[in-house]
Amino acid sequence: MPSTPPPDGPYDTTSLRGAAVRRLLRLKDANRLTHQHVRVAAEAFAVHWRTVRRWMDNAESHDGAYTPRVRRHFTLTRAMHDALTRWHGNTTAAYRELAADGLLGNPLKASLATFHRAVHRELSPGQRAALRGGEAARRHHDVHRLRPHGNRNDVWETDHVEASVWVNVDGRRSKPWITWFIDHATLVVCGLAITPHTPSQEAVLAAARDAILCGDHHRPFGGIPRKIRVDRGRDFLSDSVDEAFKKFGTELIVLPPYSPHLKGTVESLNGAVKNMLFKGMPGYAHTPRTSRDKRGNDLWSLEELLDYETFVTLVLDWVQWWNNDHAVARLFRRTPAQAWQADLTPIDTLTPQDLHTYTLKHTGTPLKITSKGVRWKGAYYVGDWMHGHGSAGETVHLRHEPHHYHRVELYDADTLNYRGPAFRSDEMSPSQARRLDNARRREAEHYAAKARKARKNTRTRYAATTTPAPPQRLDRLTASQAAHQLREMDLRERDAGEEARPDLLPRPRPASTRWTPPLPRPNDQDTP
């Protein structure tokens, strides 16, 4: 049976020296001490045998207890710690302040090098980093333990990651986002969804459907996990995502803020795709060059960027390589697919129809089928199966994918049976969509230019000084110029309401014959 360690922990070298010296002194008192005993102890501690003799002399002079002399060090006081905090970890500046205030003695008790050594001896690297960069810098020095790996589909981790690549999306440069689910035990990427903009709950549900389903165009990995670790992003904490996973019987583990180490598997995947894939793509956003050339043009022209479809294809190919060809040391040099196949844990699955229903968003209020279809969000939705059911008073529940308003799914309000899909009846044409996008972009640029001009007008310029003096404004106007600008601003404020709602007609002024005007206040009357 292995021996248990002492209750106060393992002993250090000084304690071992004391035990060896006590043993040698007992042998000396019994007249059994030989030079061989001293040499064996010296070899054990990798010192000369004369050093062991000095240890014995030290113990005899302290009543048999080995008491090594401790080297005296310069220690920091409370005022010195306060100075370091005030200077955000700048040791040299804190030393100068303490020396000027006389807190280091007169003459100085410590040199600058001694003060630096004391700071490094008494403060850990994490504490020094916290003084310089705050809590975020201190967390880089934390040590985290590894979780047990478990079995497949025990725990998944999910996250969003922004691609470090500019992509041509409908003639505009944009950085797509990837939402994916990875199995913690086998490192298999079970599913993902890619969006050309910041993802939402729709991307989370689409990636979840791709991760749970197996076969067809989906990967052969998936099933229903027992737990999923998520961060505190509002799309992961939305009601639609929470309700969908509760229907699966999956527990959402919401991690505390600022704790990426608690979902280190997916964070490692985010770093791997940036280093293994994005760095070799055209349009890489973090090239060691300026993002613009000398003429101010973008480094990557729009023609040099990948189109969105090609980017999605490359990401899917990389995920295929990661799952099937990438050997991982944590998996004993096996690929994630080999680790998945070696795990014989049963997999719970869903049919595509049931999964699609579970991940739809419910509107709540029953809607009536009229002769024009079902009205929702200012539009009518119709389907072929509705013929013969209009104007009969039938009500249905509407479900839809988040942000997908071109198609909805309708269910009977009483029996909750699936009735069929419905499509928006008056869908705009592609040319209308382009014109609408251009008009919105022009409007955004117009108001952005006005905002830049307004911010520029609010800046106050002062004269540069080389001696202590009160600030002197340089943008002072004459009285007539100031009055002119005030009149212009009054006119702009008067027109702000019409500009905000140009579709509203101005209210007519009341006729003097029908309305009695209010009496003027005493302060408003002309004084005699």
Task: Please explain how this structure is put together.
- The chain has 16 helices and 15 strands.
- It is an alpha+beta fold.
- The strands form 3 sheets. The protein has a 6-stranded antiparallel barrel. The protein has a 5-stranded mixed beta sheet with strand order 5-4-1-6-7, with helices on both faces.
- It is flat and about 120 Å long.
- The model has no long low-confidence stretch (mean pLDDT 84).
How are the strands of the biggest sheet laid out side by side? 10-11-12-15-14-13
Helicity level: 25-40%
Amino- and carboxy-terminal Cα gap: 113 Å
- Tell me how many strands there are: 15
Estimate what percentage of residues fall within beta strands: 5-15%
Coarse morphology = flat
Q: Segments where pLDDT lies below 50 for 5+ residues?
A: none
Question: Mean pLDDT, rounded to whole units?
Answer: 84
- Count of separate DSSP helical elements: 16
Major sheet, described briefly? Answer: 6 strands, antiparallel, barrel
The helix-and-strand class reads alpha+beta
Q: Report Rg.
A: 37 Å
